[in-house]
Amino acid sequence: MHSDTFSMDVIATIRSCYSQRFGIPRQPGLVDSAVASIEFDPSSDNELALRDLGSFSHLWVVFVFHGQNYSRFKPLVQPPRLGGKKTMGVYATRSPNRPNPIGLSAVALREVRFDQDRFRVLVDGGDFLDGTPVLDIKPYVPFVDAIPDARSDWATQIQDGLEVDWNAEALERLAEVEPHADLVATGSQGLRRLIEQTLAQDPRPAYERGKDGKAGQHWGVLVGPVDVMFEVRQGRAIVVSIKQA
C-alpha cells in the first residue's frame, strides 16, 4: 500500500433535495426530477472558472461521500442491486464504503447562475446528500465519455420500479407545500413527481426490497421540504402521509 498522501480543496457545496442518506437514488440519473444546486463562493476566480460551462448539457461531479459512518473501508461489499446477499470486491461496485470516499456522478446541467450571494450550478438527476463537498466538476464530452459497446456483467439494466399510489389526505397536504424553487422544479406537481420517482426506486434496505411490508409497517423518507411516510402493499408504494420537514 502506498503511503503517499494528498490534500484537496473543497471547491463548492451541494444543496440537495435529499437531506438524509435514506431515499437517495443509488445511481445518478434514476430520478431525473432530483434537482441539486452546486454552490460556489462568489469570487472573481470562481466567476472565471465557471465561464463557458453552459456550453455543455451534462457534467461530471467529483465529490466526497460525507455523512457516512464507516470507521474503515471494507474490501468486500454486498450491492443492493443484488439483494444485499451476494458479496463482491468493492472496486467492482459503486459502494460509498471505499478506501477514499470519493464519488463520481454524471448529471444534466440545468443552469449556471451568478447570484450575488452564491454562484450556482443547477443540475438534474443527482444522487447527492445535502451538504456534499465537491472536489471538481468537469464537462461530459459525449464522443469520448459515451462508450456504446461497453460491457457490464451484472449491473445490466434499470430494474422495474414500484408503482406509487397516494391516499386522499396525503394529496391534500401536498397541495399546501411550497417547495424551494432551486431544489424542486415546478411547484407541487414537481414535488409530487420527485416523491414518486424516489419511492419508485424502493429506498428500503436491500433485504426488504421485492416483498411487501408487514401490516402497519411504515417507512419515512425526507424528500425536499417534506417527510413522507409510505408503505408497500401488493408490490406498490402507497404514500400514507406527508408533513413539512
Give me the count of strands.
12
Gross morphology is globular
Helix/strand/pairing category: alpha+beta
Query: Assembly state here?
Result: single chain
Sheet having the most strands: 6 strands, antiparallel, barrel
Order of strands, widest sheet: 1-2-7-6-3-8
Query: Roughly what percent helix?
Result: 10-25%
**What proportion strand?**
25-35%
The arrangement of helices and strands along the chain is: EEHEEEEEEHEHHEEE
Mean pLDDT across all amino acids = 89
Q: Could you give the distance between the termini?
A: 45 Å
**Low-pLDDT sequence parts:** none
- The total count of helices amounts to 4
Based on CA atoms alone, the radius of gyration comes out at 19 Å
Describe what you observe in this structure:
Helix content is 13%, strand content 31%. The protein is an alpha+beta fold. The longest helix is centred in the last third of the chain and has 14 residues, at 187-200. It starts with 11 loop residues before the first strand and ends with a strand.
Short description:
The protein has 245 residues and is of the alpha+beta class. Helix content is 13%, strand content 31%.
